[in-house]
Design brief:
Belongs to the peptidase S9A family. InterPro entries: AB_hydrolase_fold (IPR029058), Pept_S9A_N (IPR023302), Peptidase_S9_cat (IPR001375), Peptidase_S9A (IPR002470), Serine_Peptidase_S9A (IPR051543). This is S9 family peptidase. The protein is an alpha+beta fold and 688 residues long. The chain has twelve helices and 41 strands. The strands form ten sheets. Strands 32-33-35-34-36-37-39-41 form an eight-stranded mixed sheet, with helices on both faces. Strands 3, 4, 5, 6 and 7 form a five-stranded antiparallel sheet that branches. The longest helix has 17 residues. The radius of gyration is 25 Å and the shape is globular. It starts with 9 loop residues before the first strand and ends with a helix.
């Protein structure tokens, strides 16, 4: 029998509106009643999915059987060393290693055969021990390669302990710093490490300077008092400058310091101005600045070393092209961009040749500069994938124009990309906007219509969506997804507004008081897939802010979906954004609006927040998956949502599964993660 959550009415009044929240008590994480309720929900979910146990085991074995468990990454060159990671069969976590560099080409690695002279930097399995959760927050070698800074988390709350290792002796240094955030940066000489810490709202707000071996308290070199801003610290590829960045959702500010002078004072590049975002990289005798000052899709500028605030356009603004990032090297510049819903790479040669773009053969793909640690190089490392092409590592030779495949992630069991097809469809939203949909299906599972659009034989479909923070759900490959495709499913990604797939305006049209476009776009995509014959029964899936999308579309059009999977879902959005004491709330006001002080924003958010809008109509079966230690979307949001659905709505069933020892990303070990995915996929397959 389904658990029944007790009701403890809490009255809340904002802007003259009074509402009752019966399940607010679930926010008390340490209350025995809360833990007992979550455990009861887990038991009920286990009972309701017991008939899927054999299917779960089968899908897990399929994922495991397609994965080369003993594998290696492509080595990355950092001066005198090639750095790489590898995995071993039967072990949950990766092993970080390096070998001395000999020549410009990466060494050829064979799974299960460590290279002669290999040095193990970190073995995640040894570090994890018997802990049910383990995560590495940062791992970065000093510029001279003699030291390693790394941080670990054993709870899933993303609060790490920072340690240091002497890579020449293997000795673990006595320096130990608890409570740090992700990332960090070394000074040029490796004597000093900069790191960030968080405030009570889980906001990285301080940058500290730690001198190795010193007993003195670490120096706070920067503190950000504006609660909308996060801070971060990095070292340019040239190793010449430390860059300290402070940024909100809409504004940024960068400070720089000569990396040879770690005790010096950071100087600001340009003071923050609301709505202006910029980033900086060092390109030898000048800086490169990517900014949106008067350029909604960003432009690239140069700036003198002596006057980094003076920006001269290098690549001007274009309405059809969103500039994403810039990587500066000694003799060339690589610009990562987005156009027509796809990513691309533009090369600016330093030898006087005209700029050009690197061509790629597939109609749908995602490409990103990745693993480019060397400032002086004639090759550009790229990560590439598509809906049918496994993650691949290429090097582009800037001298010859040759695209060299270094590694493609092995997919065992006879996988052949030619057995699958990928397509791009366009749905029409309520306001006439065309919304792209990326589709992958196994050949033979569907039959294309006579007009070559849609199909004459619809299939069960998983429709995935996100649509927030300008994050793009670009076409990507998934080993686990093959368990759906090989059973005749269609997998589709709805590139809804609020994401960044079609440029900055696409994002702006799906945030603040345009947020409902995200939800209506997803519904339009579902209706389109059914109307043109792609889809029979549709299961919607999304996580985090995509979980908000799931809750909203379940309220908007429950009849469209055969099921909904909402992972760590942000479904109690209004109550969370109303409470500035909760982690990340104030930061989020630039994304969602400020309902605490603005009655119009309050009314708008209340009109779409999933928890506030559950009604008595029949809802599809819903599976909500969350984690007790999540610091981004608290476990109580899906817990409250499922309780209200079960109390108010028809249909269902409504299931809640809580990982009692994990964080926002779920279970940490790869085998544990595969089991978790097999659980979700078996539930989806049961909806077909």
């Amino acid at each position: 029998m389904a658990p029944v959550a007790k009701k403890v009415p809490v009255e809340r009044t904002h802007h003259g509106d009074t509402v009752i929240d019966e399940y607010a008590w679930l926010l008390k994480k340490d209350d025995p009643d809360t833990i007992a309720y979550l455990e009861a929900e887990n038991a009920y979910t286990q009972e309701m999915t017991a008939h899927l146990k054999d299917l779960q085991d089968t899908v897990f074995q399929e994922i495991k059987g397609r994965t080369l468990e003993t594998d290696l990454s492509v080595p990355i060159r950092r001066d005198a060393w090639w750095y790489y990671s590898r995995t071993e069969e039967g072990k949950q976590y990766g092993i970080q290693c390096r070998v001395a560099a000999d020549g410009d080409s990466p060494p050829v690695l064979r799974p299960g055969e460590p290279l002669p002279g290999e040095q193990v930097l970190l073995d995640g399995n040894e570090l994890a021990g018997d802990s049910p959760f383990f995560s590495i927050g940062t791992s970065v070698a000093s510029p001279d390669g003699t030291k390693l800074a790394y941080s670990t988390d054993y709870k899933g709350d993303e609060r790490f302990t920072l340690r240091f290792k002497n890579l020449e002796t293997g000795e673990l240094l006595s320096d130990e710093i608890p409570g740090v955030f992700y990332g960090g940066a070394w000074s040029a000489d490796g004597s000093t490490f900069f790191y960030t810490t968080i405030d009570d709202a889980w906001r990285p707000y301080r940058v500290h300077r730690h001198t190795l071996g010193s007993d003195a308290d670490d120096v706070i070199v920067y503190q950000e008092d504006d609660e909308r801003f996060w801070v971060g610290i990095g070292l340019t590829r040239s190793l010449r400058y430390l860059t300290l960045s402070a940024g909100s959702k809409i504004t940024s500010e960068v400070w720089i310091l000569d990396a040879d002078d770690p005790t010096g004072e950071f100087t600001v590049v340009r003071p923050r101005r609301t709505g202006v975002e910029y980033g900086l990289d060092h390109a030898g005798d000048h800086f490169l600045v990517l900014h949106n000052d008067g350029a909604v899709n960003f432009e690239l500028a140069t700036a003198p070393i002596a006057d980094p605030a003076s920006w001269t356009p290098l690549i001007g603004h274009r309405e059809d092209t969103r500039l994403l990032n810039v990587d500066a090297f000694k003799d060339h510049v690589a610009v990562h961009f987005r156009r027509d819903g796809l990513t691309g790479i533009r090369i600016l040669p330093g030898d006087g040749r005209d700029p050009y773009e690197i061509p790629f053969p597939e109609p749908l793909y995602d490409v990103t500069p990745s693993g480019n640690a060397q400032f002086e190089t004639s090759r550009l490392r790229l990560g590439y994938t598509s809906l049918v092409t496994p993650p691949s590592v290429y090097e582009y030779d800037l001298r010859t124009g040759e695209l060299i495949l270094l590694k493609r992630k092995p997919v065992l069991g006879g996988y052949d990309p030619a057995d699958y097809e990928q397509f791009r469809e366009w749905a029409t939203a309520e306001d006439g906007t065309r919304v792209p949909i990326s589709i992958v299906v196994k050949k033979g599972a569907i039959e294309k219509g006579a007009d070559k659009t849609g199909t004459d034989r619809p299939a069960p479909t998983v429709l995935y969506g996100y649509g927030s923070y300008e994050s793009s759900m670009d076409p990507y490959f998934s080993v686990a997804r093959l368990s759906l495709l090989d059973r005749g499913f269609v997998f589709a990604i709805a590139h809804v507004r609020g994401g960044g797939e079609m440029g900055r305006r696409w994002y702006e049209d799906g945030k603040l008081t345009n947020k409902k476009n995200t939800f209506t776009d997803f519904v339009a995509c579902a209706r389109h897939l059914k109307a043109v014959g792609w889809s029979s029964r549709i299961v919607a899936r999304g996580g985090s802010a995509g979980g908000l999308l799931m809750g909203a579309v379940a309220n908007l059009a429950p009849e469209l979906f055969a099921g909904v999977v909402a992972e760590v879902p942000f479904v109690d959005a209004l109550n969370t954004i109303l409470d500035p004491s909760l982690p990340l709330t104030v930061i989020e006001w630039d994304e969602w609006g400020d309902p605490l002080h603005n009655p119009e924003v309050y009314a708008y958010m209340k009109s779409y927040s999933p928890y506030e809008n559950v009604d008595g109509r029949p809802y599809p079966p819903i599976l909500a998956i969350t984690s007790l230690n999540d610091t981004r979307v608290f476990y109580h949001e899906p817990a409250k949502w499922i309780a209200r659905l079960r109390d108010t709505a028809g249909g269902g069933p409504f299931l809640l599964k809580t990982e009692m020892g994990a964080g926002h990303g779920g279970r940490s070990g790869r085998y544990d993660a595969w089991h978790e995915e097999a659980f979700a996929l078996s539930w989806i397959l049961d909806r077909a």
